[in-house]
Amino acid sequence: MATNMFAANAYASIQGLSPGLGQGGAAGRIGGAAGAERPDFAALVQGAIGSVAEAGRAAEAQASAAAAGRADVVDVVTAVAESEAALNTLVAVRDRVIQAYEEIMRMPI
Questions:
Q1: Cα-based torsion angle of the residue sequence 78, 84, 87, 93 in order, rounded to the nearest 10 degrees
Q2: Is residue 37 a contact partner of residue 19, using CB atoms and an 8 Å limit?
Q3: Are 39 and 63 in contact (CB under 8 A)?
Q4: Considering Cα of 20, then 6, then 58, then 45, what sign does the dihedral take?
Q5: Dihedral (Cα; 28, 102, 11, 29), 10-degree rounding
Q6: What letter would DSSP give residue 20?
Q7: Which one of 8, 31, 39, 58 has the largest count of C-beta atoms within 10 Å of its C-beta?
């Protein structure tokens, strides 16, 4: 179960990665402007891992607060669900990257 804030943050991060894409601009497209600054793959992976770790820490903090009696169980369940969704997304992306690498390695030269 993803909350509106989780979805909005994901949408905002995707919009920041590809400026002009979907709005008719060529800056975010492959072969677009030569001087367009775009993040490299390592930065994208590092950002994704950081967001998953942050979601995990938030879920852990909510669970600790609930154990101390300072948080509602609904908040804990929401935080854990967001953390689980982020981790599942990261694992799915990892699997696709490995699958693509293996497919490239099978290509004849």
A1: -100
A2: no
A3: no
A4: negative
A5: 10
A6: T
A7: 58
99's tokens: 């699958």
Report the SS3 class of residue 22: coil
Q: Domain limits of the chain?
A: 40-109
Q: What is the pTM of this model?
A: 0.60
3-state secondary structure of 36: coil
pLDDT exceeds 60 at position 100: yes
Q: What is the pLDDT of residues 2-53, one digit of tens each?
A: 566 666 666 666 556 544 444 444 444 444 455 567 778 888 888 889 999 9
* Amino acid identity, position 52: V
CA distances from 91 to 64, 96, 104 (A): 26, 9, 20
Positive or negative CA dihedral for 69, 71, 75, 76?
A: negative
- Rounded-to-10 torsion of CA 99, 101, 107, 108: -150
